[in-house]
């Protein structure tokens, strides 16, 4: 059984990286779902309507390169963000040593999961909702 679960995990490696590619990491095993936080701090971190992240156990997370190329910001209570010191992408972080919070948009491989929850919805920006005539395009509209 142990061999089987190890094989299953090694088949499910996914790579992630920052915008400039200086920082690279990988996750192992299935990703259980993505959660998006809409709090005012997460909006500032992303510059958009929230911060979509997933959790992986520390054993299933590994830095590949560039983990020393980081810039950290934290409030006195410890809430903060770690970024690539070259391009500014927010990076995975572990606050308790047991698991990593991984910004989902850093991933280069398909995650084979879906958005499962939205939190701090009471703090959503007033524009953070779909209008009835909202349109989607595969690329820039012509
Ligand atoms: Zn970078
Ligand atoms: Zn938040």
Ligand kinds: zinc ion
CATH fold description of the domain at 13-32 and 51-113: Metal Binding Protein, Guanine Nucleotide Exchange Factor, Chain A
Largest sheet: 4 strands, mixed
Outline: globular
Percent range of helical residues:
10-25%
The total strand number stands at 9
Query: How large a portion of the residues is in β-strands, by DSSP E?
Result: 25-35%
Show unreliable segments.
Answer: 1-6
Query: From the coordinates shown, what is the CATH architecture of the domain at 13-32 and 51-113?
Result: Beta Complex
User: What's the rounded overall pLDDT mean?
Assistant: 92
| Adjacency order of strands in the biggest sheet | 8-4-3-9
The CATH first-level class of the domain at 13-32 and 51-113 comes to Mainly Beta
Give the termini separation. 54 Å
Order of helices and strands: HEEEHEEEEEE
Structure in words:
- Mean pLDDT is 92; it is low at 1-6.
- With 142 residues, this protein is mainly beta.
- The protein is built from two helices and nine strands; from the N terminus they run αβββαββββββ.
- The longest helix has 10 residues, at 2-11.
- β6 (70-74) and β7 (80-84) form a beta hairpin.
- Bound molecules: zinc ion (2 copies).
- Residues 37, 39, 41-42, 51, 120 line the site of one zinc ion (ZN).
- One zinc ion (ZN) binds at residues 18-20, 22-23, 84, 86-87, 89.
SSE topology sketch:
Layout lengths: L1 H10 L2 E4 L6 E4 L6 E4 L2 H7 L4 E7 L3 E5 L4 E5 L5 E5 L14 E5 L11 E5 L23
Parallel strand pairs: 3-9
Antiparallel strand pairs: 1-2, 2-5, 3-4, 4-8, 6-7
The structure holds zinc ion (ZN) (2 copies).
């Amino acid at each position: 059984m142990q061999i089987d679960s190890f094989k299953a995990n090694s088949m499910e490696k996914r790579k992630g990286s920052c915008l400039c590619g200086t920082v690279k990491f990988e996750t192992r095993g299935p990703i259980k779902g993505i959660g998006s936080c809409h709090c005012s701090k997460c909006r500032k971190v992303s510059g958009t309507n929230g911060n979509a992240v997933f959790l992986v156990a520390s054993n299933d997370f590994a830095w590949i390169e560039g983990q020393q190329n980081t810039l950290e910001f934290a409030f006195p209570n410890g809430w903060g963000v770690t970024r690539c010191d070259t391009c500014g992408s927010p990076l995975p972080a572990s606050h308790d040593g047991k698991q990593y919070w991984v910004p989902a948009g850093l991933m280069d491989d398909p995650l084979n999961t879906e958005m499962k929850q939205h939190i701090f919805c009471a703090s959503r920006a007033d524009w953070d909702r779909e209008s009835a005539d909202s349109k989607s395009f595969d690329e820039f509209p012509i």
